[in-house]
Specification:
The protein is mainly alpha-helical and 255 residues long. Helix content is 69%, strand content 3%. It contains 11 helices and 3 strands. The protein has a 3-stranded mixed β-sheet. The longest helix is centred in the middle third of the chain and has 35 residues.
């Protein structure tokens, strides 16, 4: 049964309703909580909304589409009197809430980005295999959070967005090849000052800079994470050994 407004216009009509999932049940609830109460009722008890009511309805919908809770919407529409929080304060609190949600979604996205190629590489991965992969990715995430601040992680996420997933994959694919090339020179006893090794070392540093972007704080956090977890990184992820890193450092110094 429709709820109506003055002049025979119904709230159920598309022309009168903003782009919002507005139902009769929603109107009843807003009436119940005192957010939008009709100006009159028909003899049959149906709610009727005049133009002032509809104007308030549009304001409610606009604020709800910002994601604000009904309680906050009511405070704003009623002028926020009685010593309540100011509009800027309410919006600031809500913005912080949205940013926390985005950060959580960003973490979930990063986890999925790491899992998808691993699952594809595993072929017919079983649920047990998937759980093992999730545990590994979670462990890596926890390790990263121990070394990088929230601000640094946000900066890394922004840089990843700027570089694009294709560029990130290219760097990830290049690292194992570069590590193998430097390892071959080390095993062969090539002098770190040799031009061939120096070229590899320069490329090594370029890939690292693509990660930290020249930010000394990010660079130091990266080096500290590598130094304190070098054995595990080398064993589980094919990362460089401390000996290999020292070889690269000596080659860079020789340049």
């Amino acid at each position: 049964m429709r709820e109506g407004v003055g002049r025979g216009v119904h709230l159920a009509d598309r022309r009168a309703v903003p782009a919002y999932r507005l139902t009769v049940r929603t109107l009843h609830h807003w009436d119940h909580v005192g957010l939008l109460q009709p100006s009159a009722r028909t003899s049959a008890g149906h709610r009727r909304y005049d133009e002032i009511d509809v104007a308030r309805l549009y304001r409610i919908v606009a604020l709800r589409e910002l994601g604000l809770p009904l309680e906050t919407v009511g405070v704003l529409l009623n002028g926020g009197g009685g010593g309540g929080p100011e509009l800027a304060e309410l919006l600031d609190e809500h913005l912080a809430h949205v940013e926390r949600q985005l950060a959580a979604l960003g973490g979930l996205r990063d986890r999925l980005v790491a899992l998808v190629p691993a699952v594809r590489a595993a072929g017919g991965a079983t649920p047990i295999d998937l759980l093992a992969l999730i545990e590994e990715v979670t462990r890596v995430d926890d390790t990263i959070r121990n070394y990088f601040t929230k601000e640094q992680l946000a900066a890394l996420a922004q840089r990843r967005e700027q570089l694009g997933e294709a560029a990130i994959r290219d760097v990830q694919d290049e690292w194992p090849r570069l590590i193998a090339q430097v390892q071959a020179e080390l095993t062969a006893g090539t002098d770190p000052a040799d031009p061939r090794v120096r070229a590899l070392a320069m490329r090594w540093m370029e890939l690292l800079e693509a990660f930290h972007g020249g930010d000394p704080g990010l660079r130091d956090s990266l080096y500290r994470m590598q130094a304190e977890n070098s054995a595990e990184i080398a064993r589980e992820h094919g990362g460089p050994t401390p000996e290999l890193i020292d070889y690269v450092k000596r080659s860079v110094a020789a340049s």
